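Is S-adenosylmethionine placement plausible here? Inputs below.
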Amino acid sequence: MLYVVATPIGNLKDITIRALEVLKEVDFVLCEDTRTSGNLLKHYDLHKELVSFNARMEEKKIDAVIKRLQDGETCALISDAGTPAISDPGVRLVNAAQKSGINVVGIPGANAAILALSIAGLPTDSFIFEGFLPQKKGRQKQLKKLAEEDRTIVLYESMYRIEKLINELNEFMPNRIIAIGRELTKKFEEIWRGFPNEILQSLSEHQLKGEFVVVIAPINWK
Ligand code: SAM
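Reply from A.M.:
I modeled the complex. Tokens:
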């Protein structure tokens, strides 16, 4: 059995009872960073074998993990934050597990994109999730394509490029309202809303550190 378990995106209380039960029961836990996940497990007094499983080593470790699962062990896949396999490692492992006939069970919970959508006040009936835009090659092309998109768009962005992204949105889609969720579920959580140029004008009032989700309204939405 492979469990794909969502963990908090900031506030350690955002973990389900079922997730804690599964983490307590499994034989081992696959995680991106053993220190980060070690702190989470320690907080809940859970003591498990932690096996590091990050994007760089996913491919190499799959066979060994599948072998342990076939030998009857149970495992939980978690990531540093939120739902595994969503802009995080896990897709290839889940694919390999499905192909090998191993039971895959998801334990739902925190996800930054869905949380931001739920508080952005922008249409949610139809949206696209693009994760992180390419950092260099293909970024402009992708922005041009997204400028034609008539559904709500959800993006992840790091603090190193958030100002750049708002400038790009001002260039490529100046008439679309955006909502930026910063440090959601954490102590200094906030949401900024407005047209890209309004947000640019008020940037000096905002902290550009932390984690960001950007939600962009559909074309012509008021
Ligand atoms: N698997 C995660 C999920 O379910 O949301 C996403 C992992 S992705 C590597 C990390 C990105 O998610 C961050 O760079 C940021 O864009 C977004 N993110 C994660 N936690 C966040 C938070 N507390 N507030 C705002 N954005 C967050």
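Short version: The chain is about 35% helix and 20% strand.
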